Amino acid sequence: MPAVFLKDRSLLSVGGADAQSFLQNLITTDITSLASDEARPGALLTPQGKILFDFMIWQDGDGYMIETDAGQRDGLMKRLTMYKLRAAVTLALVAEEGVSVCWGEDEDGIRDAESVRDSRGVRDSRFAKAGIALTRRPGRHGDGAEALYDALRIAHGIAISGSDFALQDAFPHDVLLDLNGGLSFKKGCYVGQEVVSRMQHRGTARRRVVTVSAAAALPGTGTEITAAGKPVGTLGSVAGGSGLAIVRIDRAGAAMAEGTPLLAGETPVALALPQWSGLVFPTSSDEASA
Q1: Taking the CA of residue 66 as centre, how many other CA atoms within 13 Å lie in the half-sphere pointing to its CB?
Q2: What gap in Å lies between CA 117 and CA 74, rounded to an integer?
Q3: Mode of pairing for the β-strands spanning 242-248 and 207-213
Q4: 263 by DSSP, 3-state: which?
Q5: Quick one: how far is CA 260 from the chain centroid?
């Protein structure tokens, strides 16, 4: 079972009597339904509904642990402190740096429950959607190459900020938070909720994460993907001939239906929506259906 230490991840804790209500009214994740051994993705949005910070969150005793990119941690702490006001909430940076991830499957690709228990970590709900038993645990508990983890998340369409999208540039739907447990439409208001709810109800989310494959090595992150010279999307994480991209799936679907080649730079590519998402490429301007 591979175990990889992600050195560029950082942690902060949220505790106090009002911790749950404070976070529930602020972030995209429904934490009231969070299982005790589960980590879910989430985001703090701008009032315009774009992702300002992204993270994983799980229960930690009577409070919560938030895992985010090291470069985001101080900014996220500052923003949470700004919203705290007089709430009975304690916010603290966690001294332990980095997070370890480990994963494994049985012969049928079904989650190996014993391996999950032995890892003493929390289950990552994003990978669970794809049938992968991956757990997260603060600190260094593995020496596998980070490339192993990157290849796994690329294969299953799991995007991260920085590599796959820029903060303040992507909506939660763009990175599939509406489908992987990171975006709730059933709880009350939170920052940016009105915009993302309108996108959901009107079916206007047309930018989505796709997996990208090529017979040759893909060009670098940020390369434009085109069809007949017109932009379709932008390449994100790359590992050899595999990668991720956020694309306009209506434009990509129309190109595929017409047999128009898709190119990342000058490299021919094939695009696929993550199987676990249930999405399909539309062949018109209509949004994909799940």
Answers
A1: 28
A2: 32
A3: antiparallel
A4: strand
A5: 30
How many angstroms separate the CA atoms of 125 and 9, rounded?
18
Query: What tokens does 251 get?
Result: 């434009």
Q: pTM above the 0.70 mark?
A: yes
Instruction: Please say whether the beta carbons of 67 and 97 come within 8 A.
Output: no
CA dist 232 and 224 (Å) reads: 8
Residue spans per domain, the chain: 3-155, 172-277
* CATH class of the region 3-155: alpha beta
The residues with which 246 forms a beta bridge, in sequence order, are: 209, 234
pLDDT along the chain (290 residues), means of 10: 94 98 97 96 97 98 97 97 95 95 61 44 96 96 95 97 96 97 92 94 92 97 97 97 98 96 98 97 59
The CATH class given to the 172-277 domain equals: mainly beta
* Contact status, residue 228 vs residue 84, Cβ threshold 8 Å: no
Which neighbouring-strand residues pair with 225?
Answer: 233, 264
Amino acid at 191: V
